[in-house]
Protein backbone atom coordinates (compact mmCIF):
# COMPACT_ATOMS: atom_id res chain seq x y z
CA UNK A 1 0.00 0.00 0.00
CA UNK A 2 1.64 3.18 -1.23
CA UNK A 3 -0.42 5.44 1.06
CA UNK A 4 0.62 3.42 4.11
CA UNK A 5 4.28 3.75 3.13
CA UNK A 6 3.96 7.50 2.65
CA UNK A 7 2.20 7.84 6.00
CA UNK A 8 4.86 5.76 7.77
CA UNK A 9 7.75 7.73 6.28
CA UNK A 10 6.10 11.07 7.00
CA UNK A 11 5.18 10.13 10.58
CA UNK A 12 8.76 8.93 11.17
CA UNK A 13 10.20 12.14 9.69
CA UNK A 14 8.18 14.43 11.96
CA UNK A 15 8.06 12.14 14.98
CA UNK A 16 4.31 11.60 15.00
CA UNK A 17 4.25 8.66 17.39
CA UNK A 18 0.45 8.46 17.51
CA UNK A 19 0.26 7.84 13.76
CA UNK A 20 3.15 5.36 13.94
CA UNK A 21 1.40 3.42 16.68
CA UNK A 22 -1.84 3.29 14.69
CA UNK A 23 -0.03 2.07 11.59
CA UNK A 24 1.80 -0.54 13.68
CA UNK A 25 -1.52 -1.73 15.14
CA UNK A 26 -2.77 -2.10 11.57
CA UNK A 27 0.15 -4.36 10.71
CA UNK A 28 2.26 -1.93 8.70
CA UNK A 29 5.54 -3.22 7.32
CA UNK A 30 8.11 -1.22 9.27
CA UNK A 31 10.95 -2.17 6.94
CA UNK A 32 9.42 -0.97 3.69
CA UNK A 33 11.51 1.50 1.74
CA UNK A 34 10.83 4.72 -0.10
CA UNK A 35 12.25 5.29 -3.62
CA UNK A 36 15.72 6.06 -2.17
CA UNK A 37 15.65 2.99 0.01
CA UNK A 38 15.02 4.85 3.25
CA UNK A 39 13.10 2.92 5.87
CA UNK A 40 10.97 4.67 8.49
CA UNK A 41 13.73 4.01 11.04
CA UNK A 42 16.45 5.55 8.86
CA UNK A 43 14.23 8.62 8.35
CA UNK A 44 13.39 8.92 12.07
CA UNK A 45 17.05 8.67 13.08
CA UNK A 46 18.28 11.12 10.45
CA UNK A 47 15.68 13.63 11.60
CA UNK A 48 16.49 13.16 15.31
CA UNK A 49 13.09 11.71 16.18
CA UNK A 50 14.16 9.63 19.19
CA UNK A 51 10.71 8.49 20.35
CA UNK A 52 9.67 7.54 16.83
CA UNK A 53 12.89 5.56 16.40
CA UNK A 54 12.35 3.83 19.74
CA UNK A 55 8.80 2.81 18.83
CA UNK A 56 9.88 1.52 15.43
CA UNK A 57 12.71 -0.54 16.95
CA UNK A 58 10.48 -1.92 19.71
CA UNK A 59 8.05 -3.13 17.05
CA UNK A 60 10.59 -4.88 14.85
CA UNK A 61 12.21 -2.31 12.57
CA UNK A 62 15.54 -3.59 11.29
CA UNK A 63 18.30 -1.48 12.93
CA UNK A 64 20.74 -2.57 10.23
CA UNK A 65 18.58 -1.89 7.18
CA UNK A 66 20.40 -0.04 4.41
CA UNK A 67 19.23 2.50 1.86
CA UNK A 68 20.15 2.21 -1.82
CA UNK A 69 23.58 3.71 -1.11
CA UNK A 70 24.28 1.24 1.67
CA UNK A 71 23.76 3.78 4.46
CA UNK A 72 22.30 2.70 7.80
CA UNK A 73 20.46 4.58 10.52
CA UNK A 74 23.66 4.52 12.60
CA UNK A 75 25.60 6.14 9.77
CA UNK A 76 22.99 8.89 9.61
CA UNK A 77 23.16 9.43 13.36
CA UNK A 78 26.97 9.55 13.20
CA UNK A 79 26.90 12.05 10.33
CA UNK A 80 24.47 14.28 12.22
CA UNK A 81 26.12 13.78 15.62
CA UNK A 82 23.02 12.41 17.37
CA UNK A 83 24.62 10.47 20.23
CA UNK A 84 21.27 9.64 21.87
CA UNK A 85 20.01 8.05 18.64
CA UNK A 86 23.31 6.19 18.19
CA UNK A 87 23.11 4.81 21.73
CA UNK A 88 19.54 3.64 21.09
CA UNK A 89 20.60 1.88 17.89
CA UNK A 90 23.68 0.31 19.45
CA UNK A 91 21.69 -0.90 22.45
CA UNK A 92 19.35 -2.64 20.04
CA UNK A 93 22.05 -4.38 18.04
CA UNK A 94 23.14 -1.95 15.36
CA UNK A 95 26.24 -3.26 13.60
CA UNK A 96 29.02 -0.75 14.16
CA UNK A 97 31.18 -1.68 11.20
CA UNK A 98 28.83 -1.94 8.25
CA UNK A 99 30.25 -0.19 5.19
CA UNK A 100 28.26 1.77 2.63
CA UNK A 101 28.86 1.77 -1.12
CA UNK A 102 32.17 3.66 -0.86
CA UNK A 103 33.32 1.66 2.15
CA UNK A 104 32.54 4.35 4.70
CA UNK A 105 31.49 3.42 8.22
CA UNK A 106 29.63 5.25 10.97
CA UNK A 107 33.01 5.95 12.60
CA UNK A 108 34.33 7.47 9.37
CA UNK A 109 31.27 9.72 9.10
CA UNK A 110 31.74 10.88 12.68
CA UNK A 111 35.42 11.63 12.04
CA UNK A 112 34.84 13.47 8.75
CA UNK A 113 32.16 15.73 10.18
CA UNK A 114 33.89 16.51 13.48
CA UNK A 115 31.40 14.59 15.61
CA UNK A 116 34.03 13.69 18.19
CA UNK A 117 31.59 12.74 20.95
CA UNK A 118 30.22 10.24 18.45
CA UNK A 119 33.77 9.05 17.69
CA UNK A 120 34.22 8.39 21.42
CA UNK A 121 30.89 6.57 21.66
CA UNK A 122 31.58 4.36 18.66
CA UNK A 123 35.08 3.49 19.83
CA UNK A 124 33.83 2.78 23.36
CA UNK A 125 31.34 0.32 21.88
CA UNK A 126 33.96 -1.46 19.78
CA UNK A 127 33.90 0.15 16.34
CA UNK A 128 36.78 -1.07 14.19
CA UNK A 129 39.03 1.88 13.36
CA UNK A 130 41.19 -0.19 10.99
CA UNK A 131 38.58 -0.70 8.27
CA UNK A 132 39.38 0.98 4.97
CA UNK A 133 37.07 2.71 2.53
CA UNK A 134 37.31 2.08 -1.22
CA UNK A 135 40.25 4.49 -1.44
CA UNK A 136 42.15 2.52 1.20
CA UNK A 137 41.68 5.18 3.87
CA UNK A 138 41.06 4.40 7.54
CA UNK A 139 39.25 6.65 10.00
CA UNK A 140 42.54 8.12 11.23
CA UNK A 141 43.53 9.00 7.65
CA UNK A 142 40.25 10.84 7.23
CA UNK A 143 40.82 12.64 10.54
CA UNK A 144 44.20 13.87 9.27
CA UNK A 145 42.62 14.96 5.97
CA UNK A 146 39.96 16.94 7.82
CA UNK A 147 42.40 18.46 10.30
CA UNK A 148 40.40 16.83 13.11
CA UNK A 149 43.22 16.64 15.66
CA UNK A 150 40.94 15.47 18.47
CA UNK A 151 39.82 12.49 16.39
CA UNK A 152 43.44 11.76 15.47
CA UNK A 153 44.24 11.57 19.20
CA UNK A 154 41.18 9.41 19.89
CA UNK A 155 42.08 7.02 17.08
CA UNK A 156 45.84 7.02 17.67
UniProtKB/TrEMBL annotation:
Q: By its UniProt entry, which Gene3D superfamilies does this protein fall under? A: Ankyrin repeat-containing domain
Establish whether keyword Repeat is in the entry.
Answer: yes
Provide this UniProt record's keywords sorted from A to Z.
ANK repeat, Repeat
Which SUPFAM superfamilies is this protein grouped with?
Ankyrin repeat
Q: Where are the ANK repeats?
A: 36-68, 69-101, 102-134
The record's section on InterPro entries has:
Ankyrin_rpt, Ankyrin_rpt-contain_sf
Q: Which Pfam families match?
A: Ank, Ank_2
**SMART domains the UniProt entry points to:** ANK (SM00248)
The entry's protein name is Ankyrin repeat domain-containing protein
The organism's lineage is: Bacteria, Pseudomonadati, Bacteroidota, Sphingobacteriia, Sphingobacteriales
Amino acid sequence: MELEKEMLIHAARIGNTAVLEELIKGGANLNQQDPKGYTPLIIACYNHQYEAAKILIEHGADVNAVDHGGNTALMGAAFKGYADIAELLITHGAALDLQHGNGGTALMFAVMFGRNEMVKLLLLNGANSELCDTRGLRAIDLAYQQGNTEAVELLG
